[in-house]
Amino acid sequence: MNDLLPVILSGGSGTRLWPLSREAYPKQFLALAGELTMLQATWQRVAPIAGRPPLVVANEEHRFVAAEQLQQIGVQPLAILLEPVGRNTAPAIAVAALEATGGGDDPLLLVLPSDHVIADEAAFRAAVLRAVPAADAGKLVTFGIVPTGPETGYGYIKAASAGEVRAVDRFVEKPDADTAAGYVASGEYFWNSGMFLFKASRYLAELEAFHPAMLAASRTAWQQARRDADFTRLDKEAFTAVPSDSIDYAVMEKTADAVVVPLDAGWNDVGSWTALRDVSAQDADGNAHHGDVIAIDCRNTYAYGERLIALVGLDDVIVVETDDAVMVGRSDRMQEIKQVVARLKADARPEATWHRKVYRPWGAYDSIDHGERFQVKRITVKPGATLSLQMHHHRAEHWIVVSGTAEVTRGEEVILLTENQSTYIPLGVTHRLKNPGKLPLELIEVQSGSYLGEDDIVRFEDTYGRA
Questions:
Q1: Residue 302 in contact with residue 273, Cβ under 8 Å?
Q2: Which of 220, 245, 261, 398 could cysteine-pair with 446, CB 3.0–4.6 Å?
Q3: What's the domain count of the chain?
Q4: Domain extent for 298
Q5: Which residues contact 51 (CB under 8 A, 6 or more apart)?
Q6: Same domain, residue pair 94 and 164
Q7: Residues 248 and 114 in one domain
Q8: Assessment of whether the complete model's pTM goes beyond 0.85
Q9: Residue 112's beta-bridge partner residues?
């Protein structure tokens, strides 16, 4: 049996692609470079050579989105390991390796970030297969991207030899422009892709040798995890105590068994809007647009939005429009978006974390209007889905069914509402909303009261474990 087990790392927040990517719904869950989301595309490109379904490591807050997106493309992961807090890649891979070996197996782990673009998928799979013998022999393989220019935004790997599998001489930090140019000219350096292949036991052994405290704490978090049908929830207290570090620092820079396999497959980590422009289809003037865009006398622009965007006489400008924010900037300064996100967080603004449309395990809600003491939401409930049994201390709610059928629990009574019917939930009354039908339920909710925050919810029962 093929022993290749993909480990998909999906814990990132992707704030460099704000305002489209946000903490609550980051870039790996967005369809940025095709019809599939980046998470879905990551699995699809490796599926032809995988020996089994993937292990997924995800942020606990993203658990339902990750599970649903994989279900949409017909894959049931071996496990979805949930991180209660971020601890970087070394602990994430450690708990995946512990899970992979927990039943006595020792598979080859193909570690893949969930937010990369690879244009030539066949070349990627061929590189992985070239790396398998070295990994089988106990080497820790990393994939080095053949550089296309003196990029200063990536770390580099210097190879110590030639061939399809090369010993690693050293890892180097992100260089300045002159140093990067020298690296590329030498032909000995590759971009550090953050993708790896090794036996699960070899990774655990090297982590034990170089960072035993990290492995011990990771093992405790895994052993004390709560497991249900869909998720493995790492113990929060134990995982919070795990030292935070990347696999590069914790293992790869220290081991004597690191090797690099060159990869020339149109790789891009989509780390900025400029990078996304570079991997998107462009017109003769270098413009790449998504949505309803009119560009007059523009060159090297990128525009993304749902409403009409008109650009006139612009060079090297990025424009991104969402329901609640517009970002405009020069393409060579897109890395500074993180400063915008930092400002939003400092001001406690929700736009750093949430979109106007918020996804929930039962569906989604879109806050379409608000003012002093009122808020209007468009709510969509999946067929068969149920919201929690809850109440509010500070607001009342009016529900108007637009389409579908709603089963409403209101205090001691249960009523059915259909299109154009409505009900009123007084402040302090226990209530629940369910879609008993086979079609999506859509309704308008009008909230009124002295406080309308999402934390004014007292849950008594919940299908999704949030009570």
A1: yes
A2: 398
A3: 3
A4: 273-340
A5: 1, 2, 3, 4, 5, 107
A6: yes
A7: yes
A8: yes
A9: 8
Q: What is the DSSP letter of 419?
A: T
Burial class of residue 130 (count of CB atoms within 10 Å of its CB; 0-12, 13-18, 19+): middle
Question: What is the per-residue burial (b if ≥16 Cβ within 10 Å, else e) of 337-373?
Answer: beebbeebeeeeebbbbbbebbbbbbbebebeeeeee
Do 331 and 263 have their domain in common? no
Write the CATH number for 373: 2.60.120.10
Tell me how many degrees the CA angle 295-300-302 measures, rounded to the nearest 5: 65
Any domain includes 202: yes
| 8-state DSSP, 322 | -
Q: Is the peptide bond before 147 cis (omega within 30 degrees of 0)?
A: no
User: Are 344 and 352 within 8 A, CB to CB?
Assistant: yes
Between CA 235 and CA 84 the distance in angstroms is 8
Distance CA 258, CA 170 (A): 9
For residues 270 and 63, what is the distance between their CA atoms, to the nearest angstrom?
Answer: 23
- What's the rounded Cα separation, in Å, for the pair 28 and 37? 7
Distance, CA of 144 to CA of 270 (rounded, Å): 16
Element (H, E) at 346: helix 337-346
Q: What distance in Å separates the CA atoms of residue 110 and residue 132, rounded to the nearest whole number? A: 10
- For residues 136-153, one letter each, b for 16 or more C-beta atoms within 10 angstroms of the residue's C-beta and e for the rest, the string is eeebbbbbbbebeebbee
